[in-house]
Amino acid sequence: MPARREDLLSFRTKEYLDVLEAANSGRSVAGAEAHGLGYGDNPVFPGMYDWSTLIAGASLLAADLVDSGEATFAFNIGGGLHHARPSRASGFCYVNDPVLAIELLIDRGRRVAYIDIDAHHGDGVQEAFYGTDRVLTISLHETGRMLFPGTGFEEETGSGAGSGYSINIPLPPETDDELFVHAFRGTVPLLIDRFRPDVIVSQLGVDTFRTDPLSHLNVTTNGFCEVVRTIASLSPRWVALGGGGYDIANVARAWTLAWAVMNGVDAPAVIPGEFLRLHPGAGLPARLRDEPFLLTGPDKDAMRKEVDRLVRKITERAVRQ
User: Fold this and answer.
1) CA–CA separation, 79 vs 56, rounded Å?
2) Domain spanning 69-320: CATH 3.30.2310.20
Protein backbone atom coordinates (compact mmCIF):
# COMPACT_ATOMS: atom_id res chain seq x y z
CA MET A 1 0.00 0.00 0.00
CA PRO A 2 1.48 3.39 -0.91
CA ALA A 3 2.42 5.75 1.89
CA ARG A 4 -0.05 8.57 2.36
CA ARG A 5 1.01 12.15 1.84
CA GLU A 6 0.60 12.80 5.56
CA ASP A 7 2.98 9.92 6.27
CA LEU A 8 5.60 11.48 4.02
CA LEU A 9 5.15 14.90 5.61
CA SER A 10 6.45 13.53 8.90
CA PHE A 11 9.94 13.89 7.38
CA ARG A 12 9.61 15.62 3.99
CA THR A 13 8.72 19.28 3.41
CA LYS A 14 5.51 20.17 1.57
CA GLU A 15 7.48 22.11 -1.05
CA TYR A 16 9.64 19.12 -1.88
CA LEU A 17 6.70 16.72 -2.09
CA ASP A 18 4.85 19.15 -4.36
CA VAL A 19 7.78 19.18 -6.78
CA LEU A 20 8.30 15.41 -6.54
CA GLU A 21 4.63 14.75 -7.29
CA ALA A 22 4.58 17.26 -10.15
CA ALA A 23 7.55 15.44 -11.72
CA ASN A 24 5.72 12.10 -11.62
CA SER A 25 5.04 12.46 -15.36
CA GLY A 26 8.76 12.08 -16.03
CA ARG A 27 9.26 15.70 -17.07
CA SER A 28 11.31 18.14 -15.06
CA VAL A 29 9.30 20.91 -13.45
CA ALA A 30 9.99 24.33 -11.99
CA GLY A 31 11.92 24.07 -8.74
CA ALA A 32 13.16 20.52 -9.40
CA GLU A 33 16.84 21.41 -9.52
CA ALA A 34 16.67 23.27 -6.21
CA HIS A 35 15.56 20.00 -4.62
CA GLY A 36 18.29 17.90 -6.24
CA LEU A 37 15.99 16.44 -8.90
CA GLY A 38 16.87 15.94 -12.54
CA TYR A 39 20.63 15.61 -12.53
CA GLY A 40 23.44 13.40 -11.27
CA ASP A 41 22.22 10.47 -9.19
CA ASN A 42 18.63 11.72 -9.00
CA PRO A 43 17.04 11.51 -12.45
CA VAL A 44 13.44 12.47 -13.10
CA PHE A 45 11.52 9.51 -14.54
CA PRO A 46 7.88 8.54 -15.15
CA GLY A 47 6.20 7.33 -11.98
CA MET A 48 8.92 8.53 -9.61
CA TYR A 49 6.44 9.83 -7.02
CA ASP A 50 4.30 6.68 -7.22
CA TRP A 51 7.41 4.50 -6.90
CA SER A 52 8.62 6.50 -3.89
CA THR A 53 5.28 6.21 -2.08
CA LEU A 54 5.20 2.44 -2.68
CA ILE A 55 8.69 1.98 -1.23
CA ALA A 56 7.87 4.16 1.77
CA GLY A 57 4.54 2.38 2.26
CA ALA A 58 6.22 -1.02 2.27
CA SER A 59 8.70 0.06 4.95
CA LEU A 60 5.93 1.56 7.06
CA LEU A 61 3.95 -1.67 6.71
CA ALA A 62 7.01 -3.69 7.73
CA ALA A 63 7.45 -1.53 10.83
CA ASP A 64 3.77 -1.83 11.70
CA LEU A 65 3.73 -5.63 11.29
CA VAL A 66 6.75 -6.00 13.52
CA ASP A 67 5.58 -3.50 16.13
CA SER A 68 2.11 -5.03 16.36
CA GLY A 69 3.55 -8.49 16.95
CA GLU A 70 2.02 -9.88 13.77
CA ALA A 71 5.58 -10.62 12.62
CA THR A 72 8.90 -10.86 14.45
CA PHE A 73 10.74 -9.71 11.33
CA ALA A 74 9.86 -8.19 7.96
CA PHE A 75 12.02 -7.45 4.92
CA ASN A 76 11.32 -4.71 2.36
CA ILE A 77 13.98 -5.40 -0.26
CA GLY A 78 12.99 -2.25 -2.17
CA GLY A 79 13.64 -0.02 0.83
CA GLY A 80 16.75 1.33 2.50
CA LEU A 81 16.94 4.64 0.59
CA HIS A 82 19.02 6.26 3.29
CA HIS A 83 20.45 9.41 1.67
CA ALA A 84 17.30 11.51 1.08
CA ARG A 85 16.86 14.71 3.09
CA PRO A 86 13.64 16.50 4.11
CA SER A 87 13.78 18.85 1.13
CA ARG A 88 16.26 17.22 -1.23
CA ALA A 89 16.86 14.00 -3.13
CA SER A 90 20.32 12.48 -2.83
CA GLY A 91 22.16 9.40 -4.03
CA PHE A 92 19.26 7.75 -5.93
CA CYS A 93 17.05 8.31 -2.85
CA TYR A 94 13.89 10.43 -3.13
CA VAL A 95 12.01 9.55 0.07
CA ASN A 96 13.93 8.30 3.10
CA ASP A 97 11.93 5.21 4.03
CA PRO A 98 14.23 4.13 6.92
CA VAL A 99 13.53 7.44 8.65
CA LEU A 100 9.77 7.05 8.16
CA ALA A 101 9.83 3.50 9.57
CA ILE A 102 11.89 4.59 12.58
CA GLU A 103 9.62 7.59 13.20
CA LEU A 104 6.58 5.31 13.25
CA LEU A 105 8.25 3.13 15.87
CA ILE A 106 9.47 5.91 18.15
CA ASP A 107 6.08 7.63 17.93
CA ARG A 108 4.72 4.42 19.47
CA GLY A 109 7.22 4.65 22.31
CA ARG A 110 9.82 2.18 21.01
CA ARG A 111 13.58 2.42 21.36
CA VAL A 112 15.12 1.81 17.95
CA ALA A 113 18.62 0.83 16.88
CA TYR A 114 19.40 1.43 13.21
CA ILE A 115 22.19 -0.69 11.70
CA ASP A 116 23.42 0.23 8.21
CA ILE A 117 25.92 -2.02 6.38
CA ASP A 118 25.75 -0.34 2.96
CA ALA A 119 29.10 0.70 1.45
CA HIS A 120 27.87 4.31 1.60
CA HIS A 121 27.34 6.15 4.88
CA GLY A 122 23.70 6.34 5.99
CA ASP A 123 23.89 10.12 6.20
CA GLY A 124 20.19 10.97 5.85
CA VAL A 125 19.20 8.67 8.70
CA GLN A 126 22.02 9.90 10.92
CA GLU A 127 21.05 13.51 10.29
CA ALA A 128 17.39 12.86 11.11
CA PHE A 129 18.18 11.48 14.58
CA TYR A 130 21.47 13.21 15.37
CA GLY A 131 20.03 15.08 18.35
CA THR A 132 18.02 12.35 20.08
CA ASP A 133 18.79 9.49 22.44
CA ARG A 134 15.68 7.56 21.33
CA VAL A 135 17.49 6.18 18.28
CA LEU A 136 20.96 4.62 18.11
CA THR A 137 22.34 4.87 14.56
CA ILE A 138 25.25 2.63 13.57
CA SER A 139 26.76 2.83 10.09
CA LEU A 140 29.48 0.49 8.85
CA HIS A 141 30.73 1.79 5.49
CA GLU A 142 33.70 2.60 3.29
CA THR A 143 35.45 5.75 4.49
CA GLY A 144 33.99 9.01 3.22
CA ARG A 145 37.49 10.01 2.16
CA MET A 146 37.07 7.65 -0.79
CA LEU A 147 33.33 7.37 -1.39
CA PHE A 148 30.06 9.32 -1.58
CA PRO A 149 28.63 11.03 0.44
CA GLY A 150 31.95 12.05 2.02
CA THR A 151 30.62 11.77 5.58
CA GLY A 152 30.40 9.16 8.32
CA PHE A 153 33.65 9.77 10.16
CA GLU A 154 34.24 8.43 13.64
CA GLU A 155 34.03 11.93 15.15
CA GLU A 156 30.36 12.22 14.11
CA THR A 157 28.80 11.00 17.36
CA GLY A 158 25.61 13.05 17.80
CA SER A 159 24.72 16.36 19.43
CA GLY A 160 22.79 17.52 22.48
CA ALA A 161 20.65 14.73 23.89
CA GLY A 162 21.91 12.54 21.05
CA SER A 163 25.58 12.87 21.94
CA GLY A 164 27.08 9.38 21.74
CA TYR A 165 24.12 7.87 19.91
CA SER A 166 25.53 8.15 16.39
CA ILE A 167 28.21 5.56 15.69
CA ASN A 168 30.28 5.46 12.51
CA ILE A 169 32.72 2.74 11.50
CA PRO A 170 34.51 4.03 8.37
CA LEU A 171 36.37 1.13 6.80
CA PRO A 172 39.53 1.44 4.71
CA PRO A 173 39.27 0.67 0.99
CA GLU A 174 39.79 -3.01 0.07
CA THR A 175 38.42 -4.25 3.41
CA ASP A 176 37.67 -7.97 3.04
CA ASP A 177 35.25 -10.38 4.74
CA GLU A 178 37.49 -11.01 7.72
CA LEU A 179 37.89 -7.33 8.62
CA PHE A 180 34.28 -6.47 7.76
CA VAL A 181 33.01 -9.11 10.19
CA HIS A 182 35.62 -8.17 12.80
CA ALA A 183 34.63 -4.50 12.68
CA PHE A 184 30.96 -5.43 13.03
CA ARG A 185 31.23 -8.06 15.74
CA GLY A 186 33.82 -6.07 17.65
CA THR A 187 31.45 -3.13 18.13
CA VAL A 188 27.79 -3.71 17.31
CA PRO A 189 26.85 -6.42 19.87
CA LEU A 190 28.26 -4.31 22.71
CA LEU A 191 26.45 -1.20 21.49
CA ILE A 192 23.15 -3.05 21.16
CA ASP A 193 23.55 -4.65 24.58
CA ARG A 194 24.05 -1.24 26.17
CA PHE A 195 21.25 0.52 24.27
CA ARG A 196 18.71 -2.32 24.64
CA PRO A 197 16.42 -1.47 21.71
CA ASP A 198 12.87 -2.73 21.34
CA VAL A 199 13.30 -2.98 17.57
CA ILE A 200 16.25 -3.09 15.19
CA VAL A 201 15.89 -1.48 11.77
CA SER A 202 18.67 -2.53 9.39
CA GLN A 203 19.76 -1.41 5.95
CA LEU A 204 21.32 -4.38 4.13
CA GLY A 205 23.02 -2.73 1.16
CA VAL A 206 25.28 -5.07 -0.83
CA ASP A 207 27.43 -2.54 -2.68
CA THR A 208 30.14 -3.66 -0.25
CA PHE A 209 30.74 -6.68 -2.51
CA ARG A 210 34.10 -6.97 -4.25
CA THR A 211 32.53 -7.00 -7.75
CA ASP A 212 30.36 -3.94 -7.16
CA PRO A 213 31.34 -1.17 -9.60
CA LEU A 214 30.77 1.77 -7.22
CA SER A 215 32.74 0.91 -4.09
CA HIS A 216 36.22 -0.36 -3.22
CA LEU A 217 35.50 -3.12 -0.70
CA ASN A 218 36.05 -6.88 -0.92
CA VAL A 219 33.07 -8.35 0.91
CA THR A 220 31.44 -11.55 -0.41
CA THR A 221 28.31 -13.48 0.51
CA ASN A 222 30.38 -15.09 3.29
CA GLY A 223 31.00 -11.91 5.26
CA PHE A 224 27.57 -10.55 4.42
CA CYS A 225 25.80 -13.64 5.80
CA GLU A 226 27.90 -13.62 8.96
CA VAL A 227 26.83 -10.04 9.65
CA VAL A 228 23.17 -10.74 8.82
CA ARG A 229 23.21 -13.74 11.17
CA THR A 230 24.63 -11.51 13.91
CA ILE A 231 21.90 -8.91 13.37
CA ALA A 232 19.32 -11.69 13.59
CA SER A 233 20.76 -12.88 16.89
CA LEU A 234 20.70 -9.33 18.32
CA SER A 235 17.18 -8.40 17.23
CA PRO A 236 14.24 -8.64 19.64
CA ARG A 237 12.17 -7.55 16.62
CA TRP A 238 13.59 -6.75 13.22
CA VAL A 239 12.68 -4.50 10.29
CA ALA A 240 15.10 -5.25 7.45
CA LEU A 241 15.44 -3.01 4.40
CA GLY A 242 17.37 -3.34 1.15
CA GLY A 243 19.74 -0.64 -0.04
CA GLY A 244 22.62 -0.19 -2.46
CA GLY A 245 23.89 -2.78 -4.89
CA TYR A 246 24.99 -2.09 -8.47
CA ASP A 247 25.82 -5.62 -9.57
CA ILE A 248 22.31 -7.05 -9.98
CA ALA A 249 23.43 -10.67 -9.60
CA ASN A 250 24.95 -9.79 -6.23
CA VAL A 251 21.72 -8.14 -5.13
CA ALA A 252 19.59 -11.15 -6.06
CA ARG A 253 21.95 -13.63 -4.43
CA ALA A 254 22.64 -11.66 -1.26
CA TRP A 255 19.04 -10.81 -0.42
CA THR A 256 18.00 -14.40 -1.15
CA LEU A 257 20.60 -15.48 1.39
CA ALA A 258 19.46 -12.81 3.86
CA TRP A 259 15.87 -14.02 3.59
CA ALA A 260 17.10 -17.58 4.19
CA VAL A 261 18.95 -16.44 7.33
CA MET A 262 15.82 -14.68 8.61
CA ASN A 263 13.79 -17.85 8.15
CA GLY A 264 16.39 -20.23 9.58
CA VAL A 265 16.94 -21.91 6.22
CA ASP A 266 20.34 -23.27 5.20
CA ALA A 267 20.45 -22.13 1.58
CA PRO A 268 22.47 -24.23 -0.89
CA ALA A 269 25.84 -23.18 -2.28
CA VAL A 270 24.63 -23.28 -5.88
CA ILE A 271 21.56 -21.96 -7.68
CA PRO A 272 19.34 -24.82 -8.90
CA GLY A 273 19.97 -25.57 -12.56
CA GLU A 274 16.25 -25.60 -13.29
CA PHE A 275 15.96 -21.98 -12.15
CA LEU A 276 18.92 -20.92 -14.30
CA ARG A 277 17.39 -22.66 -17.33
CA LEU A 278 14.07 -20.90 -16.77
CA HIS A 279 15.77 -17.49 -16.44
CA PRO A 280 18.68 -17.51 -18.89
CA GLY A 281 18.70 -13.73 -19.23
CA ALA A 282 19.04 -13.00 -15.53
CA GLY A 283 22.85 -12.97 -15.67
CA LEU A 284 23.17 -15.10 -12.54
CA PRO A 285 26.27 -17.21 -11.86
CA ALA A 286 25.94 -20.87 -10.97
CA ARG A 287 26.86 -20.23 -7.33
CA LEU A 288 24.48 -18.73 -4.79
CA ARG A 289 27.33 -18.46 -2.28
CA ASP A 290 30.71 -16.98 -3.18
CA GLU A 291 33.97 -18.77 -2.65
CA PRO A 292 35.82 -17.26 0.34
CA PHE A 293 38.10 -14.31 -0.47
CA LEU A 294 40.77 -13.03 1.92
CA LEU A 295 43.57 -10.55 1.36
CA THR A 296 47.08 -11.11 2.69
CA GLY A 297 50.29 -9.13 2.88
CA PRO A 298 51.40 -5.72 4.16
CA ASP A 299 48.31 -3.89 2.91
CA LYS A 300 46.09 -6.27 4.86
CA ASP A 301 48.23 -5.73 7.96
CA ALA A 302 47.80 -1.96 7.65
CA MET A 303 44.04 -2.33 7.20
CA ARG A 304 43.86 -4.61 10.23
CA LYS A 305 45.62 -2.01 12.38
CA GLU A 306 43.12 0.65 11.28
CA VAL A 307 40.11 -1.58 11.93
CA ASP A 308 41.52 -2.60 15.32
CA ARG A 309 41.96 1.08 16.17
CA LEU A 310 38.34 1.84 15.25
CA VAL A 311 37.01 -1.11 17.24
CA ARG A 312 39.07 -0.14 20.27
CA LYS A 313 38.02 3.52 20.14
CA ILE A 314 34.33 2.77 19.71
CA THR A 315 34.20 0.14 22.44
CA GLU A 316 36.16 2.30 24.90
CA ARG A 317 33.78 5.18 24.25
CA ALA A 318 30.78 2.90 24.76
CA VAL A 319 32.15 1.55 28.03
CA ARG A 320 32.71 5.07 29.38
CA GLN A 321 29.16 6.21 28.69
Assistant:
1) 7
2) no
Nearest to 11 by CA among 46, 59, 47, 50: 59
Name the β-bridge partners of 138: 115, 167
Reported pTM? 0.97
Summarised one tens digit per residue, pLDDT across range 230-249 is: 999 999 999 999 999 999 99
Residue 149: cis peptide before it, omega within 30 degrees of 0: yes
What secondary structure does DSSP assign to 70-122, as a single string? S-SEEEETT---TT-BTTB-BTTBSS-HHHHHHHHHHHTT--EEEEE-SSS--
Active site residues: 83
Please compute Rg for the chain using Cα positions: 19
C-alpha distances (whole Å) from 133 to each of 140, 160, 195, 222, 309 are 19, 9, 9, 33, 25
Give start and end residues of each alpha helix (H) in the chain: 5-8, 14-22, 48-68, 97-107, 123-128, 177-185, 188-195, 221-234, 248-262, 273-278, 298-320
